Amino acid sequence: MALKEIPNGLLADLSNDPLGIGTRPLLSWIVPNSIGNGLQSAYRIQVSYDIDGFDNSALLYYDSSRVISSDSASVKLGTNLPPGTLMYWRVKVFYDGTLSSDWSLPQRIVTIHPDLSLSSSSCIWRTADQSKDMPWVLFRKEFGVKKKLRNAILYAGGRSTKEDRQFLFRCFVNGQQVGVGPSRSSAAEFRYQTFEVTKLLHDNNCLSFLAWSAPNTSPFIRVELFLTYSDGTKEKIVSGADWKVSNGNGWRTSTEGLGTHFYNAPSETIDARREPIGWTLPGFSDANWENPSLITASGSWQPSTSEPIGYFTVKPVAAVKILPKIWRFDLQKEIVGGIRITVDSKVEETLIVRLGEQLDGERVKFKLITKNVYQENWTLRKGNQSLEHWGYRGFRWIEVETQSDVDLSQCILGTVLRLPFREEESYFKSNLPDLDRVWDYCRYSINALRMDLHQDTPTRERGPYEGDSLVTQLCEQYLQRSFALARSSIRYLADNPTWPTEYRLMLTLLVWRDYVATGDLEFVGSIYPLLKQRNMDSYINSLGLVENQVTKNDLVDWPASCRDGYVFTPVNTVINAWQCATYSTLSNLAQALGYAEDAQKYSNAAIKMKNAINKNLTASNGIYVDGLKQSHQSQHASAFTLALGIAD
Known about the structure:
Blueprint: E1 2-3, E2 8-12, E3 19-21, E4 26-30, E5 42-48, E6 60-63, E7 67-68, E8 75-76, E9 86-94, E10 100-101, E11 107-111, E12 123-125, E13 136-144, E14 149-158, E15 169-173, E16 176-181, E17 190-196, E18 204-212, E19 221-229, E20 234-238, E21 244-247, E22 252-255, E23 267-271, E24 293-294, E25 301-303, E26 310-314, E27 318-323, E28 326-345, E29 349-356, E30 359-360, E31 363-364, E32 375-380, E33 383-388, E34 393-401, E35 412-418, H1 433-448, H2 466-479, H3 484-495, H4 503-518, H5 521-533, H6 573-593, H7 596-616, H8 635-643
Parallel strand pairs: 1-10, 3-11, 17-25, 23-32
Antiparallel strand pairs: 2-4, 4-8, 5-6, 5-7, 5-9, 9-11, 12-19, 12-24, 13-18, 13-21, 14-17, 14-19, 15-16, 15-18, 19-20, 22-23, 26-35, 27-28, 28-33, 28-34, 28-35, 29-32, 29-34, 30-31
Helix pairs in contact: 2-3, 2-4, 3-4, 4-5, 4-6, 5-6, 6-7, 6-8
């Protein structure tokens, strides 16, 4: 007997939109709870080449039959999928011998590129000699679709964007933006993004990229488009010497000022008079464009481990002419992205575009307190046109200064870059308006900052930190059935630990929270040896406490004005609280992995350190002090010991 309720919340390799996943993915679903108290006794999984092919033996790739198991999280698929393939999977669950759900809605999956090593024959840039190159480069390739198409998968990547802390390119298919990429590399690997572009293709097509790279960074892109026709035949469109490339300067130029000393990013001067109009569309004349150079590159070619960043637009809630030739626009909330100006101009004129997070009186404060400068010149040509940022910024307010009396009141949109956010998955309403505002503020902050990694800000650093990620991971798990972004950030931080003393310890807590949410022991096992190395075992003194004579990297809180006068000493209460919590968490992870000896070892270490903290780092009134032989009792000394389970 089939019940009407069906499994939902399908994930493949933790992703809601599994593009570029492994060939043996981990599958998860939510069991309907209306019958049998939601207690699953068995499941059945099917995989098909087509969304409508589950009942067609020629298209059905895999059927698990009934598997007796209560598992519904991180269930490893019982077969290997072919790489470079678009497929669909679905699941039904059983409650007892007679009751089952109906089939879930199918979820699309696209597997990884079949070749995970770089091939120099498909890595291209305008020129291999960077001394003759310019930062902005336009790539394009026209091609035809010969037969009825089943699907089209685009793999696009390039050099590491780790130092730039942003993407290398924006990608377009037939004039429509597909996405940005690649995501940041965590080590020496090169990353690529995966997109499905089936519905964007026609008989005649153009694949194009607008790219920017900082000087002397050895840039390249690599692109492969897999076409699968309805008759089962396949074709590939690959980046190579037959593509066309143009120097983007003249239309776009870069000046100093957008980024800070933490990263490179272009401040974008745009001259629409020099735009190669229609260059992203088929039929554009590129006879005067060059052929690209093949770039020698070797290394590992790995998929992005987070979902593709989405592209959205938001309309200003207010447009005000604050001076005769100065318009100000309010997006109501800060966004991560840029702006688009669409206008039918009667004259050629230069606009001064200013963005900011705050106002200075009536004007937009475009020199941010983070040292970013958000001011650029955009020159209009006569006629209809759209000018848009390529990179991203963090801002709420827009100011545009004109030379003429052009009416811009309906011409501005904010262009948002972030991962998709499913509004229906979280809701809160109370009888306290201020509490509702706090909820909305916090929820929106998590939503707006969902990029390729957890990062501190989109303005000053754009960098992931263990402490920031610990907060963001927990918030995100409360708001979304979303785990891939946190997992990507954990992987990055495993390879790139940050400088604060206690932050290196937090990686263990991040992994534990990941395990509790996903049940993925395979990932825990892969990172467990590194977690053991992150402990401060060699700093433990005769009292059983962490003692570090170098205190300059102890953070406690930031900025310094928020530390409640915390007194830093070699035996720091907050550092010891974090180490104690890390030992306890390592014990839990070891137990989950079946490492009984390690589990007991770290449990003993946690108990010993907890006792040492409570004996040596409390005052006679029972309140925690900042450190050994200190009398100052900051809020932080007690807050962290309470939060991390040290207090009795």
